[in-house]
Amino acid sequence: MTEQNQTHPDADSYDPGASSLAGQVDPAVMAELLSIRSSIDNIDATLVYLLAERFKATQKVGFLKATHKLPAGDPGRETAQIARLRRLAAEAHLDPAFAEKFLNFIIGEVIRHHEAIAEDHEASLAADDRAADAARSRSAGQLPGAAGPAVSATA
């Protein structure tokens, strides 16, 4: 589901003190800046794990929808969620337009995943149908590609 971006350094090479401002600002200001950035780093890590959990749940929804041939998107649910998130954002003093853009991005990814799950599910069902047809043909003595019943060489 998630794609690794090879242009970013791995966790082992991350330097939380990295800054192009080092040596250009008062050391006390730099220490405060790094302290605040440390909190931001922790929040970012939490967001990543929360998004991972959210996508695990939406994958389950995608499998359920595919199994029951439901559409990938649910415009009524999406509209309600956007309104809810805009209200929550306003209560939290976060720009509601930003919250809506963020949720729209997530919804787009979820729908893309649901469509892929549905395609995989349909392909799997088609493969199962072909395998069942081949098994029925074999059990009826009709091997694929055979011109007729097999004739024994010792007959």
Structural write-up:
It contains three helices and no strands. It has helices at residues 27-67, 75-91, 96-139. The chain is an all-alpha fold. The model is unreliable at 1-6 and 151-155 (pLDDT under 50).
Question: Which short descriptors sum up this protein?
Answer:
155 residues, mainly alpha
Summarize the SSE layout with pairings.
Layout: H1 27-67, H2 75-91, H3 96-139
Helix pairs in contact: 1-3, 2-3
Overall 3D form: elongated
Runs in which pLDDT lies below 50 for 5 or more consecutive residues are 1-6, 151-155
Q: How would you classify the helix and strand content by structural class?
A: mainly alpha
Order of helices and strands: HHH
Characterize the main sheet: none
Percent in strands:
under 5%
Question: How many β-strand runs?
Answer: 0
Query: What is the alpha-carbon Rg in Å?
Result: 27 Å
Helical segment tally?
A: 3
Give the integer mean of the pLDDT values. Answer: 88
Q: In whole angstroms, how far apart are the ends? A: 59 Å
Précis, in short:
The chain has 155 residues and is an all-alpha fold. It has 3 helices and no strands. It has helices spanning 27-67, 75-91, 96-139.
